[in-house]
Amino acid sequence: MDNLLVAVAGGDRSAFVELFEHFAPRVKSYLMRLGCDMSAAEEIGQEVMVTVWRRAETFDRRQASASTWMFTIARNKRIDAVRRERRPEFDPTDPAFMPEPEIGGDMAVQAKQETATVVEAIAELPEEQGYLLRMAYYDDKPHSVIAAETGLPLGTVKSRLRLALTKLRKIMKEHE
Amino acid sequence: MATAHKAAASRGGDGLPSHHLDDAFLLDYAAGNTSEAVSLLIATHLALCPECRARAEELEALGGAMLESLAPTAVDHDALSAVLARLDASDEVEPAVLTLPANDEGQVPSIPMPLRGYLKAEPDALAWQPVIRGLEEYELDVGGAKTKLLRIKPGASMPQHTHEGRELTLVLEGSYDDEIGHFGRGDVAILDDDHDHRPIAGPGQDCICLTVIDAPLRLTGRFGRFLNPFVKF
Predict the structure, then answer these.
(1) Average pLDDT over all residues of chain A
(2) What domains lie within chain A, and their CATH numbers?
(3) What is the ipTM for the molecules in this complex?
(4) How many domains does chain B have?
């Protein structure tokens, strides 16, 4: 998928068609999971794919996988279209931006997460932890709302999320 | 974890923050569940904090995996041709993300993007409103929550107060100290009604902070109670 997206950045239409066939149905599912009806999901999903074509040259395969990059485009389009809000993001070209400090050895490179590995790692999480993560990504629920709806104290939600992320990192290290 | 210790220990040397966002807020931001106001504060912190940026990237990778894991839903039969037909349309241009006021060449602006894009001027030229002695504020028009810049005179102490709901504070210039610790450029404090605090600005320089408040503050100190009816933080 990363190769396809790089080809799309070079203007390759057949690569775009392949990318569309894989991602457009998933983006539509994502939007519907988050409350869009069928026609809104179709319309916003098409917007996402047009944006992918236009912005493909900003994809950096060293930084993110194609799925991760697609996710950020879909997430932002949804915020724009459904919530009618802007999505503030940092700008790495800003003179006030603080770059990574020079740390020697293996700390120097932040390895990107391969999507297949992350998918496997999520599947290995204890059910209660995976559930909280799915509420965050699929149900549009900030952690304070998750706490209110599950009846769990905020501190418990926070510590479960922290546990989930620590466990994910550990699982992904084992997969490396 | 090693990175966290490194950042905390080397503060001052490399100018990196030592008070960070917790995973829960980074997750909300990465998943797209924060209001524009809270997103603005988080994104501005991320511009100053490589450590939280790395964690936010992990959480976006988690989003990528969540997208990949969904069962596909069939798109309209003409969706592909509709999209292909739009690829060359030159009249559809991606909107510019944010416009930023011009800056002096070669000078590092004290307010990073994306916050700088929301301000109409450099901090000195903003229409600051006096609140109490030593404290001025400038309210921003951002969706989702009450959003302000605060400017505190060097050495000034603020009335003791607690919070109804949550207050997120990001230090942009100068510093302050409270019961929790020392907060300098890029540091984030997340306070709720469990916290009762009395911040004092550091010496030598105004302390400028961005705050996002969901609900009005409740003042708890002696002067606080007196001030409460008149002061809206």
Answers:
(1) 89
(2) 2-83 (1.10.1740.10), 113-175 (1.10.10.10)
(3) 0.93
(4) 1
